[in-house]
Fold each of these.
Amino acid sequence: MDQEGMIHLKATGKGLDDSDLAVHQDEIINTVVKYVQDSMRKELGFKEVYIPANSTPEAPVKANVFVSRNYESCKKLLIFVAVSRGLYPGLWSRGLVLHAGVKSGSMLEYFRKAIDEGYGIIVANPNKNVIVMRDGKQRLQIPGSSSPEEHMDSLWDSYVARSAARRVYFLGYSYGGVLIKYLLQSRGDQLMRRNGAIALIESSHRIEDGDSQSVKSILAHRTMYWESNDQLFQTKLDGDAPHRTGC
């Protein structure tokens, strides 16, 4: 990995091409995950907690979640939510890591900025829903995290609700926006009293007829939505994005 976070093959020093990705994709991702999560622990002081909340590190059926050292005592708490197949806590997406590098594809720069600004942090892991046992045949659902939605409910009940934070903020990417909107509904009364603001990037959520007025209000007045384009930063979006997202 170079100073810009771009990944190179160790044997040749060259950047990745399509043939490299076809052969080495999982190996590359596993190496990046180790680097990112080691940086989270050693440089930034994160620790791992679990769902179910009473799980030990040795428990075979659990989902891991990363929290900053001050998440229980901070005044403002920021929750990161990113979802896609095969994703691990600390990454935005596998594709970004492979094609744009670790600096763009990981959350590390966001963590550093948030910590500098005094936020506590929780990094959700809604992708972790089942455990494949060693025989490769048996798949066990994780209690409290058997679906992305159940994971978010458990995350709130076990960790966010117990935090001293007066304001809870969210940063969601892709399907993470759907889960944040879900949490606005499932834990609405608790969340509304503590909601700071929501930032969504390339979110796939939609406003629907059955959404409560309070959810629509938060999306309209306390949420910012960004998507990649060729315009200057903060240029107002054209098309159906404002109508679709309610932001």
Amino acid sequence: MTASEKLKYLLSYFNTNNNRLGTLINKRQSLYDIDKGKIKSFSIDLVMELKKVYPELNENFLLFDDENIVTSKDISNKKFLSHLQDPEPKINPTLKEVQLKLKKVKENKQKSILPNAQPNIETEKFKVVKLIPEKVAMGLISNFFDSEYVEQLETELIEVDEYFTEDAYKVDSVGESMNDGTARSLLDGDKFLAKDIPRAKWGDKLINGGKNLFYILHSERGHMIKEIIAHDIADKKLTLHSWNKDKKLYPDFEIHTNHCYIIASIQELLSRKMK
């Protein structure tokens, strides 16, 4: 079994992905290189970092050819040494077989605080968010929102007021278009939590009478935070509104959802620069 295949088994078993796990152990590039086949084996140092997050992880699975992803009582030093003495590869089980074998263990695995004191991404108070500052947003557009580029986005673990399962982003407010001089204003440099709206739901009415403030990554207009004041579902058009009262500089305008890479609902203000 290749290192890349072992990594896929590991990610599937622990219900995570390359980007999230790489961020937790600060080894994103190493995991990326293993996934792409650039690195052919797991180093001992990398395995030890992984075990800090998942103490039950069986290092022999990654370093050698042990079929057990997690440790069990029947794994002994004798079995460990046999791998060093016998280089003949074993017939590896399929991913489905491994998952079935460990299903009971996985079902009993409770969501908890990780050993390194970082909260598990599945808890109700914490969320892993992708960081999309202005420069990164421009990079996403110039790379046509390539999946590998998206996968390598920096992430951050933040505490949230209300947990949700959809992808999340930490995004910037840029410029003065959403500054109307009132307390609700979005200021240049403000950072917000945005909840992704899956593309499959863009055909639903996005305006719900409540939160109509959205982060949008558009192929031509770039990234922006705007209020959606109209949604033509039939023609797939959104009418975007800026709060700034200078309509010569900030007029309302329409965009087509087919030209959007991200539409996400703004959830809360995360930080604001002190003036």
Amino acid sequence: MSLLLLDIDHFKQLNDQYGHPFGDLCLTQAAQLIANTIRRPPDSAARYGGEEFAVLLPNTDKEGALHVADKIRESIGQHQVSDGQQQAVMTVSIGVASFIPSQNNTTEALLKAADDLLYRAKHNGRNRVEG
């Protein structure tokens, strides 16, 4: 089981520079790009907060999850967001955590590990995957 936590880099600056409607468009398009990347039936994605998304990959090991995370990062980074008047490119930082479910491994521990790795990705320069 793997969990990806994604954060749109410098989202506050996007909102400040282009306005909140454009920021909402960024969120909508990021969600669509994530959904287009994770197509297996048990996989799921959700907005986790402000500019953060969570992707649950129940049948994916760490190596596979890192591959999915890289595909998501590339897809979002190559996408031009446009509202017809202004345009921008987004980048994302992603933390990837994996474990084999057991009594010793809790969902809270998985979430904390992914969050810690997301923080590391942001701290190490953003627009990267840490796992």
Amino acid sequence: MKNDIGQRLREERERLGLSQVAMSDIGGVKKLTQLRYEKGDSFPDAAYLSALSRFGLDVQYVVLGIHSPENL
């Protein structure tokens, strides 16, 4: 499950045209943490997801694998 979330997080980063560094800066984490999220080695917290949602991240898709209506 974590690996699926990491994959979807990477898909969203690429959809938004962000580098790992840019996304980690927006989310308030280090680049290594961003890499761990995308690899499925750790799980992003609510504060990280909330910060990125303000930049267009589809949090529902990342967590549940279902696109929110705004992002279809």
